[in-house]
Write the structure tokens for this entry.
Amino acid sequence: MCGIMGYVGPREAAPIVVDGLRRLEYRGYDSAGIAVHDGTALTVTKTEGKLARLAGLLDEHPVAGRSGIGHTRWATHGAPSDRNAHPHTDPGGEVVVVHNGIIENFLSLRETLAAAGAEFASETDTEVLAHLIALEYDGDLLEAVRRAVGMAEGAYALVAMCRQEPGRMVAVRMISPLVVGIGDGEMFLASDVPAILHHTRDIVVIDNGEIVDITADGWKIEKLDGTPVERDRLEITWDAEQAERGGYPHFMLKEIFEQANATTETLSGRLLEDGRVVLEDVHFPPGFVAGLDKIWITACGTAYHAGLVGKELFERLLRIPTEVGYAHELRYSDPIIQGTTLTLAISQSGETADTLAAAGLAKERGSRLLALTNVVGSTLSRESTDVLYTRAGPEIAVASTKAYLTMLVGEYLLALAIGRERGVLDPAIDATLVAGLRGIPAKIGEALAAEEQAVVLAGRFAGRDDVYFIGRGLDHAVAVEGSLKMKEISYVHSEAMPAGELKHGTLALVTEGTPVVVVITQGDVYDKTVSAIQEVKARGAFVLAVAYEDDEQVAKHADEVLRIPRVPDVLSPLVSIIPLQLLAYHVAAARGHDIDQPRNLAKSVTVE
Ligand code: AGP
């Protein structure tokens, strides 16, 4: 996820573009840049780091011009650096491009261009687009962009300008968002409404597969095949702060609702049409996977809970012994790790001090280190031999949601890749995983419909002091994460445990009305989980089950059921976590808490 901003009109472009980028910084902040056209030449100013650094550079070396585009980056291809920062140009500096998203076939495009003698100044997929547009340019930017994007595959939005046509911007949306703002003799373009809201409330939303041609006097939308598009304008009524959260009251809720898109991004270019799995930054040496005798997962908090799902998957699907350890414990332990161990260090930020220390210990002991992280260029990614980026985009709320879900997606992809290379993956399971993962963004969308019910149920939980979460196998792994969500933002004490463990002690705490949340999706242990429900019901518990939409049995046992769409049991964590996130969110909201910044917590724990 990155932020794009553009302006064309009678005013100086640079301050308007930089101000718009400031309002889009929630979309990415590892580097930033602008390109301004002064009527004769294009000037690019860009730098690694937050927008403040770019603003400082522009104070020292101001750029004049009445049209400009800008970008705030969340790296996906190429580490955060000056040269990878956007905008990117072709070698002649004729075309300049900013881009949000991923060009999936950029490597083959780049190789073709390189074979024809092209030289590249960055490692980004974006630069390839600048080369292609420049090569296609014959006096009409719109047509050049149209032809260039015809060669590109992926989910992205881009904006291009060219030296020969001052005052013109051409933009394309292929999934990633793009809006046009209509001013009085001036036009704006952005990834999201907040960037332009204090200039205009008159908005046109660009749809997938559309190209828009913008000058100060107007705009024209076409489909990529040239069909003209008529689009109504929208009048935005949100205030600026609301708009930054996309109209949601909190970033956490926005991020919960971004999970279908985040999952699409994580799968993009990795689970190919023909079922192949391509993990672009994972390069196990020959023989390593065949000789692997242990997977060692280390992480903290929510990332650790993603690891619990990983353990279930790797042991069940790959039959490789897998341990999950809290990084803060493992760093002081004496783990059995060697060259035939794969250490999987999971961290949204890639900066958690304990996780870095545990990962360092694994490396010292000769293990191959694979980072599963959301932040390109983070310390963990740099210290690892292999990296799988989750591509969830910046996660602002302290309570992790979309990062967790995309960590799970990363683990499913890894299971497929390793299982195939070892030749141990049952073909039927392989086919189930491939088809199931392809359909998962839509299923996540359906699972989000549980929100209405979560609001009502939250009222029942908001006044309680304790909540228990139970489940078996994969359901237990999800229950543990649901419990953490509940405690960290609602401040209601909650505990999770395997359903079979209740009777060994915790059952003593269950009395009349005690809320017990049961995740029940795994067919092979279904009856066992029902037994646990009966145990707590017999003590007066209020049971809320999370179950498939077509489960007709569960309502006979539970007091309330939060329904999730049917998916293969092995993939259930990807949907069963969603009602639990929504429940925690609405309990916290009902209790009036500062949801995005809960007390005593920080987003990244970079100290021991
Ligand atoms: C979860 O909601 C928390 N924010 C926390 O448990 C977090 O997952 C943990 O601190 C690890 O962070 P990391 O993924 O950035 O390493």
